Amino acid sequence: MLAKEFAMHKPPFARTVLLALLSVSALPALADNVQRVHQICSRYLDEQPDYYESRSARFSLRAMPQAAVKNHSVTSYEAAPSAAPSAQAIATRDSMVGLEGAYGSVRHAEVAAPPRQNTERYGHYEPNPVHAVAEQPVSTFSIDVDTGSYANIRRFLTQTGRLPPADAVRIEEIINYFDYGYAKPTDGKPFAVHTETVDSPFRSGAKLIRIGIQAKEVSQAALPPANLVFLVDVSGSMYSRDKLPMVKYTLCTLAHQTRAQDRITLVTYADGNKVVLPPTPGNQRQKILAALDSLKAGGSTAGENAIQQAYQAAQRAYIRNGINRILLATDGDFNVGITDFNTLRSMVAEKRKSGISLTTLGFGSGNYNERLMEQLADAGDGNYSYIDSPEEVQKVLHRQLSSTLATVAQDVKIQVEFNPATVKEYRLIGYENRMLAREDFNNDQVDAGDIGAGHNVTALYEIIPAGQTGWLPESRYQAAPAANDKAGSEYAFINLRYKLPGQSSSILINRPVAVGSKPLAQGSNATRQAVAAAAFGELLRGGKYSGNFGWPQTLELARNAQFPDRHGLRRQFVQLIEKAQQLSSKPQ
User: Fold this and answer.
1) Per its UniProt record, what InterPro entries does this chain match (predicted)?
2) Gap between the Cα atoms of 442 and 424, Å rounded
3) DSSP string spanning 524-563?
4) Which of 96, 148, 184, 355 is buried deepest, with most CB atoms within 10 A?
């Protein structure tokens, strides 16, 4: 009650954050004193940056002349040292909304500014092609537990009022954003596999095979000791309220869940690297928060050297049989040192052999390098999340903390062999940058995605049964083979390989997919939600395979997936579909 009364006297944004915290399920560290956690962490969200720091001096943006604001020129105000602001300068400051330059952006909220140049970077890919089973019966891919694409799409729709670029849409990350309520494993294995086949809404006669993987749960209290290195970008590009202040809030929130047996290290980077906090017991929160308080943005971004130093710090504090993980918080705008994408990715891939994982947390807009963030996490055996709101922090680092930090299976690969007697063609929806060669499946030296405690992963295949009209032209000479009794009863056979953490040899499990399907409307809530998520992604990417299943049908399907919605994520998903439908009818 006291916390709620306190919230009523706070500014609207801070009050929203506190009430959201109050709605989160009880967590060991947060449940004791929600008011105190709010006071400590959400104060970062109310920071109003009014200066940046460079290598040589602190320069005040308060004393900046109006001409500099209009010209959007960094060089025009680099010579203005800090000074007590005049009344005119304060008025100038209060009118600034979107000053952009080499040191990032400053946002104050009253007068519209000229649009900033958008330099966001996304990896380009084409949708997975359709394959004829007679020519290529086997499909192999690595699992992917990343969800950053969905949160980034949400940022575009709700904060910019624009549709996201097609390359920002990775359909598997939209699907995997949601919890499907799959049954947990009961046989001692790290995960359970579930399948269901329904009629496809995208093409008449086609079917959708849903493959769902549910990892076992590990409670937060049962997590092994954690060695966590916070690697924080404090360069000038992080100078805006949706970047460094949100980073501080994120790490403050996580710090309130660490324990005495955990170790926290804080490394920052801009022009150079600095160990702001040496390995510190996780329950020494005052020391951790004091280190966060000291962070200020300024300078260029030498990310490669910082990543190397973070691995060195993690190695020095390495906990055998524990969680050893780097959490990189940045906008990905590396501009000095090694900036080549492939070189950075190769370096991280080599470092993962040391048993230290890399998780990336993306922040901000305008110059956001999403391609780098997603691929570094993949190479580092970690996961990628985009933080667009306090609510996303609660999802990733509160409710799914065990999933984010604790790995229950490594190098998880899926190989599906389709039966040419019953399936004519197929396509995998999403996972374009996770495809593997057929021979990679049995090669334990080939890296693949890891799955965290409690995570679920879902994949959808659209198939054309034998005898139906497909996407591809008919072959003149290759007819479907006659089916024997066994072959005629199966659409496909699923093989799945994984390694237990720390092991070098994989374990194989498999199961068939029986012939037959049910109407989508009679499918499980999990399947209907997954298909709605896939349809949303397909339409955002242009709808190449959507057929006549447009925004109205996608919206209806999402509304009819009746799941418990404790945290409002499905309700929000429906709202995002409505927003995308509205924007799709307008010129972009």
Assistant:
1) CLCR, Uncharacterised_YfbK_N, VWF_A, vWFA_dom_sf, YfbK_C
2) 26
3) -HHHHHHHHHHHHHHHHTT-TT-TT--HHHHHHHHHH---
4) 148
Enumerate domains of the chain plus CATH numbers.
51-106 (no CATH), 131-149+158-218+408-468+488-584 (2.60.40.1230), 224-387 (3.40.50.410)
Q: Residue 9: which pLDDT band, with cuts at 50, 70 and 90?
A: very low
Give the dihedral sign, CA 146/355/335/59.
positive
Residues in CB range of 180: below 8 A, 6 or more apart: 212, 214, 456, 458, 526, 529, 530
pLDDT tens, 507-546? 999 999 999 999 999 999 999 999 999 999 999 999 999 9
Is this structure's pTM higher than 0.70? yes
Sheet containing 323-330: give its strands across: 273-281, 263-269, 226-233, 323-330, 357-362, 384-386
Sign of CA dihedral 365, 368, 374, 379: negative
Q: Say if residues 42 and 390 touch (Cβ distance below 8 Å).
A: yes
The pLDDT, as a whole number, for residue 55 is 35
**Which of 106-115, 151-160, 238-247, 485-494 has the lowest average pLDDT?**
106-115
